[in-house]
Design goal:
162 residues; alpha+beta; seven-stranded mixed β-sheet; 7 strands; 33% strand
Length: 162
């Protein structure tokens, strides 16, 4: 089994979308209703990845035997373009490869690349009910900044300093 991590390209959009869509269906089935999950998957997800790539986001994919099994994206936060903090927009591992270390490898790679670009830390947000993700990020060294509500869902904002 060959594992590689590389920057995403336009031809990866379909594979990245499949990873995120499958993870949403499994990981969020107890957090969001089917209508919400459907609204954030499929064609909307593909358009989102295309826009991120067009806007210069740092998107990395982890492949197993050349098949994309995990994706992570980071940007300079829209809310503070002068900050030296990266925003991790997403980190997803296809369900069959969750809890195999792929998320850890890909997030480590992404954070290392953000440090190399001069960022002093990173922030991210996850649903408060997404306990496995919260535990993963806390073990990684992320700490809670605040909890906030958005569209009836509680989110936890987390930060890590480099």
């Amino acid at each position: 089994m060959r594992i590689d991590i590389r920057s995403a390209v336009v031809s990866d959009i379909e594979g990245m979308s499949e990873v995120v869509d499958s993870a949403w269906r499994v990981n969020y089935r107890d957090i969001f209703d089917e209508e919400t999950i459907a609204a954030f998957t499929g064609e909307r997800r593909r358009k989102s990845f295309a826009q991120l790539l067009d806007n210069g986001a740092d998107i990395f994919v982890l492949t197993v035997d050349m098949k994309i099994t995990a994706v992570c994206a980071a940007v300079k936060p829209e809310s503070n373009k002068t900050a030296d903090i990266a925003e991790i927009l997403l980190l997803y591992v296809t369900p069959e490869f969750q809890r195999t270390g792929q998320g850890r490898k890909l997030l480590s790679h992404t954070l290392r690349k953000m440090r190399e670009k001069g960022y002093s830390g990173a922030v991210l947000s996850t649903a408060e009910k997404n306990i496995p993700a919260l535990e993963f990020y806390r073990k990684f060294g992320f700490t809670k900044i605040k909890t906030r509500e958005y569209n009836g869902v509680s989110y936890v904002d987390l930060k890590i300093d480099f």
